[in-house]
Amino acid sequence: MTGYRICPLCESTCGLEFKVEGGFAVDVRGHENDLFSRGYLCPKGANLGALDADPDRLKTPLIRRDGELVQATWDEAFAEAARGFAAVREAHGSGALALYRGNPSAHSLAVTPYLRPLIKALGTKQIYSASTADQVPTQVACGLVYGSAAAIPVPDLDRTSHLLILGANPAESNGSLCTAPDFRGRLHAIRERGGTVTVVDPRRTRTARLADRHLPIRPTTDAYFLFALVHVIFEEDLENPGPHGDRLTGLADVRELAAVFAPEAVADVCGIAAADIRATARELAAAQGAAVYGRMGTCATSYGTVTNWLIQVLNLLTGNVDRPGGLLFPVSPTRAAYLREQPFRMGRWHSRVRELPEVFGEFPVATLADEIETPGEGRIRALLTIAGNPVVSAPNGVRIGELLPGLDFMVSIDPYVNETTRHADVILPPPRVLQSGHYDWALSSFFVRAVVRYSPPVVDLAPGQPGEDEILARLSLLLSGQDGDTSALSESLVTTVLGKSVKSAGSPVLGRDPAELRAQLNGSSPLERYFEAMLRLGPFGDGFGADPEGLTLQSLLDHPEGIDRGEMRPRLAEVLPEADGKIDLCPDAVRDEVASLAAGLRGDRTGFVLIGRRTLRSNNSWMHNVPNLVSGPQRCTLLVNETDADRLGVATGDRVRVASGKGAVTVDVETTLDIRPGVVSLPHGWGQRSSNGRLGVAARAEGVNANALTDESIVDVLSGNAVLNGVPVSLEPEVATR
Ligand code: SF4
């Protein structure tokens, strides 16, 4: 039997094709007919079968008995979860419960719809996720500028003539907040059609190597560089906001703020010649359809929100937002077009210990340890994790690992016993990838082309095995003091959507009977019916018969290669909370930060700083138990510039002790000319030695936990995002080998 599915392992969403043998995927290839990825896949996707068949995956729940995690039935595990959470709530209140979600949960069909009832049942504001060690500065910057909770423009990769990339390495990561299978091929295509690609990165990455120009910037100085571009654009009267210019407010304020950031003033700070900065600004302004795009290097850093605000400022000043060939706002197939976007809000409440603001209802993961450790009312006593491994992926995750054993209770929804879940009292393993349906709720807002796809489960659940939706629903019920049949909760998700849709102005089903709509849903599970309802009410949906050409679940099932609804199109008025809304080029929140940034022009920048890096075969901590993905040359090495290496007296293969203000690791050196002097690089997600032997492959892999070096006490002030790049470190050769 041939199976198809969208790869859930990164944001590229490649279509995969494979043989199903004995319930597992073998011979995994890129699906040649997939209308989005056209046969592309990376080594991770090719190993989806091995990941799914990993013998270390849990097949039954585990519960802690006499200090040991032992196998249990599902009923025993749920009963233990209910007992443990109830005991903590009884003693300390709901505010002592906390939730942490890891990155893979963003790729789950079940987590998005069931998250709201779960959080409601927990009854706590102690909500955390990996987002605050990742992309939140982009979301905050866009929220402040566009005033919308969901307006993030995406580079029009397939039509742009000029792409300026900062702090992103899509040739290895396959792209993020810009969903584009074969990102690397699309970058090549820009150059083949006469466009230019410029990469600004401390390291000559795989992406930088295929660009027209690489500017090796000093880490943490992207904001200075971007401000200098803004400065040149104003100084040389190059601003041209285009048709949306009348929406912009604060133009004069930005001009004033940019005054002190002349290229000549920031050149030494950034380590980039003023002439190169000026040339970059002029090229950007002159290009017919250009995009400035930044990712992790611009987010997980001090001034992350200011940096991402400046990216929006540049894109708006040059008239490239909402412009084909520039940046556009993709249409999500499951976001009802008749609903207006919600206004962006943050800081509605603050964390207990450090008073950091919530963003999208979450506190920064950088303060999770504080909230577990600090006594007082509201101290976290019980934790639920979903597909998360903060001990490895959060800043100073080592501290979190030291605190988890002190919790009163912990439950993890996770397929593995890893560095984090080994501390849980109950582990509930979700089904394998092939046993689950797939649709990317979140990523569909970042697709560079509207190709709509859905992957149904390929393999049935085992008798008695719950789907991830059932696990989440059952936990939600238990946390609400109920138990038993989850179907009522699942059904309520569908009926709530339908009930709202028949009352919403502009809805294709306005005034119809929700029961009649419900009867038209054909999905094979509550989760699939929920997806079906959202799809049919979405911008490409059939509106339950209103548009006979529109999409239904069946049309997607009939077309595993996807249904192409075309290129992104200008639609700014649709994504602003008000159709005639303004765009705030200079939000109040960034002004104080800009003053602090300006003061930093005189800062001391001597000594080594650490940055992260991505590799094609890895994705955070969740790919290292697949032999094919960790075989070959060791990838968790410390990249050191050859000049620095000579000065230290180390060579490739030597061991060096790397120390920060938070911790130290000893790691193999790899010397290179592809990194700025004074900068060293270590990938994260490694060093998985502490899984109690339950990750047989990852525990044997060489490598160290980069988050033993990062500092949770330092965050991007505006968003609370973790600072994972630009960490000051010292290097000490372990043995002088030369
Ligand atoms: S790039 Fe690789 S991991 Fe990402 S979706 Fe495609 S095959 Fe999967």
UniProtKB/TrEMBL annotation:
Coiled-coil ranges (or none): none
Chain ranges of the 4Fe-4S Mo/W bis-MGD-type domain: 1-56
Matches recorded under InterPro entries: Asp_de-COase-like_dom_sf, MoPterin_dinucl-bd_dom, Mopterin_OxRdtase, Mopterin_OxRdtase_4Fe-4S_dom, Prok_Mopterin_Oxidored
Keywords carried by this UniProt record: Iron, Iron-sulfur, Metal-binding
Pfam families: Molybdop_Fe4S4, Molybdopterin, Molydop_binding
SMART domains referenced in this protein's UniProt entry, alphabetically: Molybdop_Fe4S4 (SM00926)
Family to which the UniProt record says this protein belongs: Belongs to the prokaryotic molybdopterin-containing oxidoreductase family.
UniProt xrefs under PANTHER family: ASSIMILATORY NITRATE REDUCTASE CATALYTIC SUBUNIT, TRIMETHYLAMINE-N-OXIDE REDUCTASE
Protein name: Molybdopterin-dependent oxidoreductase
Organism in which the protein naturally occurs: Amycolatopsis acidicola
Taxonomic path: Bacteria, Bacillati, Actinomycetota, Actinomycetes, Pseudonocardiales
